[in-house]
Fold each of these.
Amino acid sequence: MSLDDRKKVILQAIVDDYVTTCEPVGSKALIDRHNFTLSSATLRNEMADLEKLGYIEKPHTSAGRIPSDKGYREYVDSLMHIDTISNAEKKDIESRIATGVGEVTDLLKNATNTLSTKTGYVSLAMTPVLKKSYLTQLKLLMIEPGKALVVVVLSAGVVKDKLVRIPNFLTDVQVNEISRAVEKQLSGMPLDEITLITVASSVKNTSIPDSFLNQVLYEAYTAIKQADKLDVYLEGKNRILSIPEFNDVGRAKGLLDTLSDDGMVAGYVNELGTEEISEGDDSYMIRIGQEIALEGLEDCSFITTTYKVGDKISGNIGIIGPKRMEYSKVISQINFVRKTLNDEIKKING
Amino acid sequence: MSLDDRKKVILQAIVDDYVTTCEPVGSKALIDRHNFTLSSATLRNEMADLEKLGYIEKPHTSAGRIPSDKGYREYVDSLMHIDTISNAEKKDIESRIATGVGEVTDLLKNATNTLSTKTGYVSLAMTPVLKKSYLTQLKLLMIEPGKALVVVVLSAGVVKDKLVRIPNFLTDVQVNEISRAVEKQLSGMPLDEITLITVASSVKNTSIPDSFLNQVLYEAYTAIKQADKLDVYLEGKNRILSIPEFNDVGRAKGLLDTLSDDGMVAGYVNELGTEEISEGDDSYMIRIGQEIALEGLEDCSFITTTYKVGDKISGNIGIIGPKRMEYSKVISQINFVRKTLNDEIKKING
DNA sequence: TGTTGGCACTCGGATGTTTTGAGTGCTAAT
DNA sequence: ATTAGCACTCAAAACATCCGAGTGCCAACA
């Protein structure tokens, strides 16, 4: 017994109905809402089959059916047709993303914000994976005696900085000297090849005592390594509380607690990101329910896609919502956000 | 009829009990837990009086009493005695705050984090009020053709920066020239005296065409103004979901929605901050329930205190919790965090 | 006059019972 | 293979009951 066409149509209808009503759907209700040329009895038989095959399940004996993870999977893989997105909405998304932008991270913030508002779910974006990028500039900027700003510029156009302490008596001129020497040595070097040793060995023959020099270089090193860190933008966490599935404070807290651990989310998404995403214009990845290996997300789906910074560097952007989600709509939105984001990044990085 | 000593003791007992049990307290229970030399009947009379006076109220006819806002107010103003804080806890707080610190904002983040963990409530801190401070440095740093980093250093030791777009053909040397000119003109100037005009008029007689120069200066100006912005650090929002009062998703959402509007919270706290806080070592401000003019915080209390950066500049730090809160404990913690924060800031700004 | 034991009363919350109705599976007829 | 029909299930809603911590008030007492 496998999924014949009729079963597919029925499964599709069940998912569609459940998504909109959030209530288990029964044979009668299904007949009412769609004009099947079927009796409810036949439908029941088919539904019993679908259940045996694992595509739908019953919360309890005398209730309707809800899609299982496998059912959703079948749905997103081969049943749904992706929405088109109206021109008005396109305009809206474009203007939201392009507003008040100075650098790539601004775009990411805007994009997550937009996604969250548009979908009504939690959205997230990660900064580009910088490991694959290299250092283009490093500047030490004297702020006042004992304090300097390390400015790190990476190939992806990402700029990070860090305020560090330096020996009190170092002069403006000396700091400049170090700055130039380090930059000369390191610029162009891939980030993961930069070690404390390469940094330390970059400056030689200066008037500055070694021990102090090393202190400065160490700070420069940590600043570089810190720039390497993945940042996560999560938007719209509060919206979780509006989702019926999370009407229970306990559940909501479970989910929110997990989400508030940026590192954990980042790690997970990053891992996913290494999996293959086909290279089309409309490519995305979906993780449904138990497929998500994060505590508290058992009733959620995770839809991510990738954006690009230049040729090789990419990052992830996507949303987290309930399994019971209007996939077709959300996916169309994500795809358009991704497209806009890519375009805008190109504009910035010219 | 006013609050005689016995009534005060009773009110105190009611608040204490209610805070720990989260259940309306009745005459019998009160007698059981405290060894009053009173019968429950007398107690009932006294409680009826306290109710008439508005210090306590009944959720419904046949229930015990809970403190009213006025009751809490009386409690915090004259009934409670502030906890002392153990040495172990002091050490803990000190180490949490002083760990991994580079600049003042790091301290603030650590401090809010500490406060939230220690109290179990939401904690918040605001960056120093910068209006009273002045500009000490302004640097334009060429990143690549068309892009520059504006670094703004303020008297409070606060460093902010912003990546801006500049005309493509401007050279490193030209950017430096502008940078020096602007800094020379503006450094030492109070932030609120800096206007687009003062910035624009700071550079004269250069080789750069006016229209392009103006573009750069405009970006510098917005960067300065942006540095002027108050930042709010809010920590531990999730903890709200663990508070019995907010076991209801609707309420929790109301509160969280308000809190997620940083600007609104900042505005409110800032307004409060202008009110007088006495200058003792242990000074704090409490707003209880309806006294808080923010939607969704009707069942909350707001405890804030101020920290200092140098002589004149100060910022706020505090917590938001349920009205039903162990005030004495929380206040002692806030005070110690404040003290530690002040000490550490002095260390940094030396 | 303030205190106290006593008592009738209240009412939210817990517990138990009944009803309802949408849903199911199965069977026999088409 | 499809379908009408029927007996059965069970969560949720509606209704009923009970319990007890709590109250206010009164009359008696120090």
Amino acid sequence: MSIETDTREVKAMTSLKDIAQVCGVSVATVSKALNNHSDVSEARREQIKSKARELGYFPNQAARALKTRSTMDIGVLFADAHNSGLTHPYFSQVLEGLKIRTEERGYDLTFIGIKSKRNKMTFLEHCVYRNVDGVVVACVDFNQPEVLELVRSRLPVVTIDHVMDDCATISSNNVEGMTRLTQYVLSKGHRKVAYIHGRPSSTTNERMVGFFRAMEEKGIDPPEAYIREIPYLDDEAAYDMTLELLALEDRPTCIMYPDDYCCIGGINAIRDMGLSVPEDVSVTGYDGVPIARVVSPKITTYQQNMLEIGQTAADKVIELIERPRTAIKNNTVIGGTLFEGGSVGTIK
Amino acid sequence: MSIETDTREVKAMTSLKDIAQVCGVSVATVSKALNNHSDVSEARREQIKSKARELGYFPNQAARALKTRSTMDIGVLFADAHNSGLTHPYFSQVLEGLKIRTEERGYDLTFIGIKSKRNKMTFLEHCVYRNVDGVVVACVDFNQPEVLELVRSRLPVVTIDHVMDDCATISSNNVEGMTRLTQYVLSKGHRKVAYIHGRPSSTTNERMVGFFRAMEEKGIDPPEAYIREIPYLDDEAAYDMTLELLALEDRPTCIMYPDDYCCIGGINAIRDMGLSVPEDVSVTGYDGVPIARVVSPKITTYQQNMLEIGQTAADKVIELIERPRTAIKNNTVIGGTLFEGGSVGTIK
DNA sequence: TTGAGTTACGAAAACGATTTCGGACGTGAA
DNA sequence: TTCACGTCCGAAATCGTTTTCGTAACTCAA
């Protein structure tokens, strides 16, 4: 425990002026040399660049931003509906992908948070205030007026998993993913398949489409009682709902859950009833989070490629930033892979 | 799929000049009014403030930063040794805490990443370049020269879980936590307690101290074969190590793991040997991540208060920023709570 | 009336970078 | 020699904000 003494080295910012001084040229020339403008001789450019390196020069972002309106900074907006914050098992990986790719390409990442108390600004105002070059939006309530304002602004915006007009989107292939997962279950001989889906959203809708598509292919029309709804990531709700399903007269042989966490909750319910997975009841998850491979049996799930979703979102927003006229605002779908764990048994 | 047409509304930044214009005063007066300087009349101040609100004015951070050297931006440096990136179950919650508190206090959070290829700068250079007001450092290799350079700089730095000279630290109470967890195990009658700890680090060392302290209190000296080491978060290593421990002549009745993930790996090994938890073998985790409460039986673990660690780190770095002379650089320890799951049985 | 002391405001410099424009100089052709 | 042209560089404006300093106007006591 010691009082701050402030005797330590100051890492002084070396400016263009410093370089100009030692090179005996003007600031303008230094700037042009470092930015590879054509009206500076090759010899000068080399001299200046080597001096700059030597002095440990890095452009002051604040000054540059003031003049050029470019900050090399990308905002990330994330407000979870599940109260899990950044620990959101899906989003944290998307964020990691974003971080990796933006860093690779020389951009930084800044959170555009929920407005603070003192100076409450909207998301867009926050972006303008911070001069971010673009924004990636995920997990928010896309009907919120503030989000609409942001998406409709001139700012380059990329959304994750939610298609909006005139705005680029990176999304997981929910239809195909759920189709393939269901097809896998059916290929194991299951015919009495229950599906507990998440709360309504574009993601949920797509997965429903995938589920029913696969079922229809086999000519199966599941009874209404087999289709249920719970919140995402709510293992307790999954537990209760599982008990309900297993109490049915004609009990399903396989239960499909909205995500891997819910699936674990379901497994607990099944075991607490004295049944076992997958011998008595089969289950599937969704997402393919790390924990799905750790529990026993490993959960059969559709593994979304969240890292790639994040990376692609970064590429997309940077493309919109750097080539505003040519960049196309479309929907990029990222494929995943079926992970065959041990939670789905065979029905003879 | 449509070509960007750029017909959308521009959210024009309203500047001090705009306000000055409509109020018929100078820019200087507007600035002073908004910053509550004393040399502007009350009437003027009100007029200017209301106009500013009306026009949706927010100060341009870039311009302000250029002049004042304050960006209201805090850097967060995080490089995981476990390759789990932001999905790191521990860190993602710390980050969430950081995010919540910094937002509350009007600061933003920017990642200070690993240097990118094109312009490779050190962490400190990155901070200087970005003009962050302070940095929070977590999970990095604290022996790295770059990290040392950063910590020793004049920049306000707060580290998480690693005490360094002349630098504020927020850490979990590892000694007490492990002591209490071990005491709990012993109180259940266990005497043959194995401890699989993580790779050496200050955190690991503290927990070892806690473990042996509790054991000594009971006069127990565990055999060397009971003390093992694996990487953190490596459930497969935990699986293998558990098999080894259970193959011992004199098998332990309880195995303590370095974290909850490893504990789950251990549970799998125990079950695969035809034994059950906690009837045949008891287990404990560490951290208290959400999944510990989802698996069955729930894992008895020491729940670190990671959200609060993050929030406290934010408070600390902001204190160092706003009161550089008076702020004290010390080590703040955040307590956790014992979570009594069902993974530890009673030995009669 | 005079002088000192407030009060309320504006002019201007500064932060560090980019960019426009113009000028000095050298080269080659007529 | 002269003129047109290209090459290389610098002066100065600019981005939006903060801050110092100067000053006009007003108050009040002597």
